[in-house]
């Protein structure tokens, strides 16, 4: 009835109000209520209007099991009386001791990635520092990268795998237009979302997951959470000038990104589970979150370099060339965004039209009905 943690741990977190009780996220039914961890690392839904949302038939980890699913908010408990916020993320002051901050991140990251059980495990590997650090913790697990021919992610993954002595472990999932046309309607059903950005991000993950599952793996290690926790976004690096963030500091902008995790993780977890693999995200363990939240501006972004603290921690796990490499966002690095746009235009949905890609997505969904 609970995923991600045992009932005693979650009860203790409820009683103490501790938002980070040493888990990698949890959700499910506990003592006649639905609960979901503070970062929403486990998706959870209940039937809208259910008299008792904790009744077995009224809730699920998969929104497709319900006729009118309503997500349980991260950090909340849902009962017949409504939603109650149980936990909020800590807002610690910035750590002023640089060495202590870096040591805390290094210890937390190393413990998390090396603590992953590699039984039935594959790694989603894009060649960036996030997935490389995860792969370093499970040296016997094969690595998978998705992308269209000539894409940045495939080239980066090959370079990183070679540098890490893992070239023979790398399996390339070469994407095609048929893959996109087939996967988009499936993902719309899985996610309950139609917007192109979510689909472009989920597509490579979903197709890597399906390939790994077909190869006999039932778990997929991912680097999710690193960009949000460690300042990996360009809009964070450009704060406060970037209009996409409200904060007036890099640290404040990073905190804004952390608060987007519940929505993003719902998308990624649902896509991977539907593909046939259970996601494993060691960089989202509570110990890593606790170490990341106090990082000062200069250990997030410095001299145009992002994820400073994570890269420093990575130097103990991967070659320097891999620890320092910059990488494109998955939707651009795999060409998923470019090729979905190309397909839309080939189908007559030109860029001069409002929301031309979403219109194309809707047309694919209609064809499947």
TrEMBL record:
Ranges where the record places region Disordered: 1-26, 47-79
InterPro entries for the chain: Asn_synthase (IPR001962), Asn_Synthetase (IPR050795), Rossmann-like_a/b/a_fold (IPR014729)
Keywords recorded for this protein, A-Z: ATP-binding, Nucleotide-binding
Domain spans labelled Asparagine synthetase: 106-240, 253-351
CDD domains the record matches: Asn_synthase_B_C
Signal peptide: none
Domain of life: Archaea
Record-given protein name: Asparagine synthase-related protein
Record organism: Halogeometricum salsisoli
């Amino acid at each position: 009835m609970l995923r991600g943690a045992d009932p005693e741990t979650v009860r203790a977190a409820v009683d103490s109000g501790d938002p980070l009780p040493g888990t990698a996220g949890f959700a499910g039914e506990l003592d006649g209520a639905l609960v979901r961890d503070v970062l929403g690392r486990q998706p959870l839904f209940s039937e809208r209007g259910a008299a008792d949302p904790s009744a077995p038939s009224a809730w699920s980890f998969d929104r497709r099991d319900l006729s009118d699913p309503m997500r349980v908010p991260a950090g909340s408990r849902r009962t017949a009386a409504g939603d109650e916020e149980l936990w909020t993320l800590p807002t610690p002051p910035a750590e002023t001791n640089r060495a202590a901050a870096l040591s805390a991140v290094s210890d937390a990251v190393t413990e998390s990635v090396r603590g992953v059980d590699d039984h039935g495990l594959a790694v989603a590997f894009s060649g960036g520092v996030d997935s490389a650090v995860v792969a370093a913790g499970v040296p016997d697990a094969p690595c998978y990268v998705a992308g269209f021919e000539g894409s940045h992610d495939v080239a980066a993954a090959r370079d990183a795998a070679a540098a890490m002595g893992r070239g023979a472990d790398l399996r390339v999932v070469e994407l095609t237009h048929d893959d996109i046309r087939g996967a988009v309607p499936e993902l719309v059903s899985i996610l309950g979302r139609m917007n192109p950005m979510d689909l472009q991000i989920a597509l490579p993950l979903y197709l890597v997951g399906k390939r790994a599952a077909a190869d006999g793996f039932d778990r997929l290690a991912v680097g999710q959470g690193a960009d949000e926790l460690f300042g990996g976004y360009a809009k964070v690096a450009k704060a406060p000038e970037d209009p996409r963030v409200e904060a007036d500091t890099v640290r404040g902008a990073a905190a804004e990104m952390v608060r987007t995790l519940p929505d993003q993780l719902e998308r990624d977890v649902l896509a991977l589970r539907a593909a046939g693999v259970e996601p494993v995200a060691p960089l989202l363990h509570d110990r890593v979150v606790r170490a990341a939240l106090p990082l000062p501006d200069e250990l997030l972004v410095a001299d145009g370099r992002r994820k400073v603290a994570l890269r420093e921690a990575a130097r103990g796990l991967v070659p320097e060339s891999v620890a320092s490499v910059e990488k494109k966002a998955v939707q651009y690095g795999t060409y998923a965004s470019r090729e979905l746009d190309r397909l839309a235009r080939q189908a007559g949905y030109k860029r001069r039209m409002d929301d031309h890609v979403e219109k194309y997505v809707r047309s694919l969904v209609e064809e499947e009905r």
